[in-house]
Amino acid sequence: MLLIRCPYCEEERPELEFRNAGEAHIARPTNIAAESDDDFEKFFFIRSNPKGVIYERWRHIHGCARFFNAVRDTVTDKFVMTYKAGEPKPAKLPGASK
Amino acid sequence: MNASFRISGAGRLNQAKTASFSFDGKSYLGTEGDTLASALLANGVHLVGRSFKYHRPRGFLSAGAEEPNALVQIVRDDARKTPNVRATVQELYDGLTANSQNRWPSLAFDVGAVNDIASPMFSAGFYYKTFMWPKSAWLNFYEPKIRSAAGLGVSPDRPDPDHYAARYAHCDVLVLGGGAAGIAAALAAAETGVRVILADEQAEFGGSLRFESGAKIEGENGFDWAQAAIAKLKALDNVRVLSRTTAFGYYAQNFVGLVERVSDHLKSPGRELARERLWQVRAKRVVLATGAIERHMVFANNDRPGIMLASAARAYLNHYGVAVGRNVGIYTANDSAYAAAIDLRKAGVNIAAIVDLRDNPSGPVIDEARGLGIEINFGRAVVSAGGKLRVSSMTVQPKNGGGERTIAVDAILMSAGWTPSVHLFSQSRGKVAFNEETRRFVPGAYAQDCMSVGACNGTDGLDATIDEAYAAGAQAARDAGGKDSSGKMGQGARPKVDGSESWSRGMLGAAPGAGPGTTVKAFVDFQNDVTAKDIRQAVHEGMHSIEHVKRFTTNGMATDQGKTSNMHGLAIAAETLGKPIPQVGLTTFRAPYTPVTFGSIVGHARGALFDPTRRTATHGWAAAQGAVFEDVGQWKRAWYFPKAGEDMHAAVNRECVTVRKAAGLFDASTLGKIEVVGPDAAKFMELLYTNPWEKLEPGRCRYGIMLREDGFIYDDGVVGRLAPDRFHVTTTTGGAPRVMHHMEDYLQTEFPHLNVWLTSITEQWAVIAVQGPSARKIIEPLVEGIDMSDEALPHMSVREGKICGVPTRLFRMSFTGERGFEVNVPADYGEAVWEALWAEGQKHGATAYGTETMHVLRAEKGYIIVGQDTDGTVTPNDAGLDWAVGKKKTDFVGIRGMMRADLVAKSRKQLVGLKTKDPKVVLEEGAQIVEDPKQSIPMKMIGHVTSSYWSENCGRSIALALVAGGRDRMGQTLYVPMPNGTIEVEVTGMVFVDEKGERLNG
Ligand SMILES: [Zn+2]
């Protein structure tokens, strides 16, 4: 069972307290009703599904109940870091050399 | 009186303390401290099982957890018949009853052994080839036959009467394996004061010190040193010592699963003891000290009872005081088997001969064996074993061919070398690396905070092992934050090795006589009956990846997971492929290391403790009235309230009629309730629901629809506006948590600028629906501070006031089509208010009704249930709810999804009513609908029935259905083909009672 650090509670808690909520940094268009079919498709259906680093939304549902973002490696399952919802995508990942 | 193969004075058991047991109905005498295996061997019993595929007679291969052959059924009583217990692990208790498995009618004469003669049929991949055609035969014929013929014991057919405990533990250093290495690591870590857990699968610590008579530590015999060290560790407050505890799984971030066998070794465990205890341990550092497992030699008939690993024979002798034979042959490719010959010879057992594949090895053990007068044959191979139910001879030949010689024996001890136990390391996602020089896989790159020490790390020799383990234990403690409080930590304090045994390499793969071109039965995997020939055949048939070879032959796929067979299998595949071993690769090790019972995984989470049960405030009242309950998620809901002599049908009919004639009381507390509060509450509601909310006046209610972003209906419910900044939202019973999650998601991440607070209030309010023409008369006398006239409290309004002296949120709303109210009161008052309303209701002929009547009454009015009449692909328009979508709104969740071309297509399935031509026929929910019943199969299905009931109020059956283009089909006849004939139906509107809605105000 993974340990996940909640950036609001500021501690590592077991995976069971959390729920994954899909890919992060996909903003809902402000004028969504006017989106073209292509743009809506990109927003709603298309996800990156990478092998390696993924940016995800998680919720500390059985804890503080806050949504936050996490950087995880889909190969090792390891969490690289977590940060609060609304914060920008980290420019540099801890331990990343590339 | 002792069993005949027990050697007086040998071993560590107190031979005066006997224990009786039975095997296959025959009684034997063992000694306390025996395993079932050592006790049977003491009585000269080697034949204990039949193999899986060929039903070949089998005995003991090992003396430990790696045992592939000696699987037995342990029977305590009718409910406790544990199959597939390794006799080498099961501790003996007085009165133990064991039976052999996989044989009929008896172990010595087994009909299934015909498979052995017919073995060409059963070669590699036979499951895939033989049972392919016809497909239907697999289910009805092949599978049941194979299962009964190749069973591994019999599953108990009663509920497990034992209980299983569970513990979570955190520690700084977790040491897995309690041999010399593990104990040394634990000693070093414990000195620093950090929290240490040391676990070992055996009843007693010591690992291979159990049989290594040459090991001396701190001036003592190795095993005695181990016991003293364990006693010292047990006395420390910061150390937990767990014996009979197997680390079966190594998961992410040093999370390790262990199973402790608490009472399987006891005669009468008693109810106060759990059978097993699951430990879920999170460790800062893990030290793997899992040792190594000896490999067998792969030669013809190497599976005959009496042929076993050399180290096993030493354990039986040096620990249990049992000789595995009287005239023993040795077949080896390394030094360690010599120690077995020496130990046995010294105990008075005749060693017929040592056959050593190596050409001219030398060393102290060889000299010692020679000095004891044991015949040694170098450069020779055992090409076959004689005997059937017990080995009787070995046939020896120069390894490059030549004259054969047959030597009579009653046991053969073999050793092809040692395989480091990298299972847990591999489970931790570490990568093993092949050492060309020693030809073994050892830990390479680590993925987690752990270290391997001793034999599992490829470290040879006791001195080097203790050196490495002690340093690793200290390092792990330091890394986990421990301090060297004693000041002695390090080499100075490490246990001193005064004597040790050294093992040399050995060989991998088939021995001479079982190599390429031969067809002899030289077993690689005993448990799955895989021979060297099978593996070569798999390669010849195109399986070039070791993962394919494994699946095609099933090598390593039995319950022992190939502990003794993987390396041999790999070497044979590599040789056949003409590739080096590391290029062929080792298969992945997966949890569990040894089989784990379902009981230990499930723990206490069964029966009533499997899932929480939620009960409403009126549960006790309803139960006292004889209500029948149904499960709705975790809730228990009153389903119907039968009176004496009524069946469900009669009760529901009466309830339905009474509600529409007089009134009914219904517990609606399970509906989800969320309070949406704040200055931006209305704005938030506008975004989360399709309806307009800004203009809804406080005190009024509206039926709301919630969509997902894709435009499909997600939930629905009545929403009351209590104040400009306060909404009382209701959700479906099952939808409450996900609606809350959905709302929080948008509030926190998409609309965080809105000043809104969401609170789940489902549990806070009990909800009593009072519905029917007399509803107001029932409630009015109990209410204070609320004008209940139609003018003051019209349909779809809400007021706050008091009922029976307690606060209420009184909704005027209806899910029945009748004049209706939903009385919300704090849950603690729910039962009292219900009883007061019930007393009033009695004056007006009211009934209590349950969920079934609720369903019928709402269907009579065409009110949908989200999740029953919708399925996640239904839009508001499909459900005939376009009126609930705010046409002037520019944004709400789902507004864009709803516009997608497919979601506005005319041909979509729409919700309509159905009336069967025969009013007495009630359709089946889920039944498919077709236009033309005479078309050929498969018919074109144009929809399905979503809700269907007998309506006593209508005097006929009614149904709702999703039908393609349904609203344009009013009056059309459609067909519902069923197994007993086709049912004719007419498409109608969705409202079956009071189409104009007059009764809501009547
Ligand atoms: Zn949190």
Short key terms for the protein model shown above:
heterodimer, A: 98 residues, Folate-binding fold, two-stranded antiparallel sheet, 1 helix, 6 strands, 8% helix, B: 1002 residues, alpha+beta, Ubiquitin-like (UB roll), FAD/NAD(P)-binding domain, 52 strands, binds zinc ion
Question: Describe the biggest sheet of chain B?
Answer: 7 strands, mixed
- Structural class determined from secondary elements of chain B: alpha+beta
* CATH superfamily descriptor of chain A: Folate-binding superfamily
Strand adjacency order, main sheet of chain A = 3-4-5-6
The tally of beta strands of chain B, per DSSP, is: 52
Mean pLDDT level of chain A: 93
Shape of chain B: elongated
Q: Strand tally of chain A, please?
A: 6
Domains of chain A, number: 1
The CATH superfamily of the domain at 164-292 and 421-499 in chain B appears as: FAD/NAD(P)-binding domain
Largest sheet of chain A, described in full? 4 strands, antiparallel
Give the CA-CA distance, first to last residue of chain B: 96 Å
CATH-derived architecture of the domain at 164-292 and 421-499 in chain B:
3-Layer(bba) Sandwich
**C-alpha Rg of chain A, in Å?**
15 Å
Strand percentage of chain A lies at 25-35%
- Mean pLDDT score of chain B, rounded? 93
N-to-C SSE string of chain A, H for helix and E for strand: EEEHEEE
State the share of residues found in helices of chain B, binned by percent. 10-25%
β content of chain B, as a range?
A: 25-35%
**How many helix segments of chain A?**
1
Overview of the molecule:
Chain A is mainly beta and 98 residues long. Chain A starts with a strand and ends in a 14-residue tail after the last strand. In chain B, helix 8 links the parallel strand 18 and strand 19. Chain B is elongated, with a radius of gyration of 38 Å. Chains A and B meet through helix 1 of A and helix 20 of B. The structure holds zinc ion (ZN). Zinc ion binds next to loops of chain A. The site of zinc ion (ZN) has 7 residues of chain A, from loops.
